[in-house]
Amino acid sequence: MKVYVHDKGIILVGKGWEIVQKLKEYNKEYSTVAQWLEKVAPK
User: Fold this and answer.
1) For the CA atoms of the chain, what is the radius of gyration?
2) Angle 14-23-1 (CA atoms, 0-180°, nearest 5)?
3) Residue ranges per structural domain of the chain
4) Which of 11, 13, 29, 41 is deepest in the core (most CB within 10 A)?
């Protein structure tokens, strides 16, 4: 499972179940992808 964070978005690479698990994990901390990007995207 790999997560690539860019200033314009996020790329998740892995098996389907891995991606679902990672999204559930991040959903506990961030309610939207936009919030996730604000926190982790390089500026």
Assistant:
1) 10
2) 20
3) 2-40
4) 41
End-to-end CA distance of the chain: give it in Å, rounded: 24
* Residue matched to tokens 């994990």: 25
Strands 9-13 and 2-6: antiparallel
**Top-confidence residue, 42 or 33:** 33
Pull the structure tokens for residue 42.
């390089």
Give 43 or 25, the one with higher predicted confidence: 25
If you search the block for the tokens 């314009």, which residue do you land on?
A: 8
Q: Are 36 and 26 in contact (CB under 8 A)?
A: yes
